[in-house]
């Protein structure tokens, strides 16, 4: 470590020189001994590429790159129900980043949620998922992070109230919510499924958003897993049929792979936090990893909990009648008179799992605020849905939301004007 | 004192259709391209949301998408012996501003010109003998055959909906039998016709004509263009011309090119950059860049290896004039070429009124939704003994039923009050308009120069337009109108009104935004400003795109040809110019 720090401090002013320094350093280390810290400061091209790839699979940049000018330097304000957490600086800066960390330190953080100084990390950092990953993958990510430009950026402590501001209490949280796991392939399942499990439950940490959380903020498992959760005020929809709605029950693997690769498919387009996930993470996945992820997600078992009220609301219902009128005048130009949308451009509402989610938050927010899709190589046009908050009142938004959830063969609970008012207020 | 910025390889002035086409083509070649646009960025989905874009007051009457005359305008007069006055309100034509330019608010009618249009002088002289002395029409120096692949490129970019009439020389049923041979069918089928164009087509067929669907940049179905950009099917909302389409159903630079162009690292767009002049080298043999002013009033000098002027016709000409590039045309001496051969379009109309059982549903419309005949365009008919050359198309487009603008009432209706309201109620939804759209030849006395009196907001002299319809055009328009009346009679309505175009030309009522000429292209520097690649004859690193290159204005909407000329120019730049930058691609 001392050598590394020295090399860095000597050459910090220039990246090119710094890399040259590291090359010299690794040569020196190789020559010196067979110390376990050999992996540190590696300049192995394939190891760094693997680390970069895995950091994308884990979508590290989503939370750790707040400013594109300062990649992985953290300080992204993460709002949680308990207060705000500022994300860590992952660059190899000695004072403020991971400059002093060893691969072992990094592994302990990933695997157990414990910082180099022994303090507990708050579980907004998904060590509850990362605990699944292999030591080799942890080391590759570590090597990649250590190869970055060190950026000095101090990160504040969370503004949590007492006693949550005492990191020691996380011992208790971990006792209830954390299990130090490692990945063992299920021989009954295909290699693709196993790889998909490893990605989704490990680095991908999909359930952090797509599952509901308990009162301590931990992801629920069992029947509740993947039945939909909240992310930045948006509903991350259920991925499997059950209490959260129909999930992805009628999505094909091609649908899901196209969605994760291109941000769109013939049914819908990603927006909000998922658009960012696609842009920073899933579009980079290799074909086989994407296939594996889709294989696993589409194989999630149907939840034991019955779907909520599955009877479509009658068309004579006054809300449905108002909703039909609002839909025809405001929505049908893009989404089509029968909710069929335009593949790759405007979302299909007919049969849409998101539209029929038990929790209507996202549907209501879409109508109120509008959203923009993420432009990708295949779909460069940033199609957007305009905001209607200036135009439709709470009752009209509720009516049109109720309508799209119960027209075109859809069925989902009605949305009330009060619910709309609450969501409007919250944003 | 201007602040001087680092030199760029290509600077494009004006970012409408041709600016975007040139930028796309030249960035694809790897060049570093900076586009300067006087207007602002507009986001298609949200700024033109289908839920609020259909606002007649804002767009049609308060000109939200059009250029601001308080900033720069022109003066106008009908003839050299009059004193020109400033145009203080837009009327006859409606140039756009902002990213995408006028191509954002167009109707979307996308023609190819006839092969004979490109050789208008030699063709007509050969067939009909000497032309009137004051008629200054010219051959273009480029042929239909040379432009054919570029027309195809543009049609595929836009996803034009239409039916070919001539595929590689073989006539096709249902298309325009008069068009030049095309190498490919239109990328999309024609739009779905509503009743009005069907009534027109039926009547025209009965008279022996061959009606066909307007070639339309309104999408008949979802389409992904060769750049990978998607367009959505048209909803026939009836808000094309003078409006922007937030539904991605009308091809424009923002809906077909920008999503790809904006992702390219070697492209930069600077909005609110008002270019005041083009800078010349001391020896006058090249341009060195442009000078623009920021919204804060700072003057910026932007040096460039190559400058492409892609502003609206009048502004391209004006920039040449105020930059001292080339000699301004003088009709008395007939010296000078800048501003020469300004031309326009001549239009007329017939409205057929039906009884109330015939439901036209005019609110189901699109800019280029309709049927048309081409029997009387260009030289598709024998002009012997008619006393004019040129022609135009006769067509029925159901563009809109907008409640303020589109209120046809029969002759004799009071202009206001209860009688007008009654006629309005009775006729809205029961009338069909037929339009004629004719060529305007160029003349010694129709031209652009600088006004001696009036100046713009930046202190530059205004451009002065001197223009009137001549006998050739008025006769031609009457002839077309007579044919339209015959079709209207065969359409079986209750009554009709006929609006003939009479002289003198007035700049007040809206006609078309099809201004042409002023920096015309040609085969020789003796009679043109640019060569056939739109390259300036004397300053080979200066290019001028747009309809200012037209030596005269044929009987079609210009956009297809404007775009084809830009692609033709870009192809030559990529193929030849970049191997010998700064050199003329055609030897004088």
UniProtKB/TrEMBL annotation, chain A:
Main localization, broad class: membrane
Compartments it resides in: Cell membrane
Signal peptide: 1-39
Keywords: Cell membrane, Heme, Iron, Membrane, Metal-binding, Repeat, Signal
Domain of life: Bacteria
Domain Cytochrome c: 46-149, 191-301, 318-408
InterPro entries noted in UniProt: Cyt_c-like_dom, Cytochrome_c-type_DH, Membr-bd_ADH_cyt_c
Stated name of the protein: Cytochrome c
Source species of the chain: Pseudohoeflea coraliihabitans
TrEMBL record, chain B:
Chain ranges of the Glucose-methanol-choline oxidoreductase C-terminal domain: 446-566
Record keywords: FAD, Flavoprotein, Oxidoreductase
Highest taxon above the source species: Bacteria
Domain named Glucose-methanol-choline oxidoreductase N-terminal: residues: 233-343
Record-linked InterPro entries: GMC_OxRdtase_N (IPR000172), GMC_OxRtase_C (IPR007867)
Family recorded in the similarity comment: Belongs to the GMC oxidoreductase family.
Protein name: GMC family oxidoreductase
Organism listed in the record: Pseudohoeflea coraliihabitans
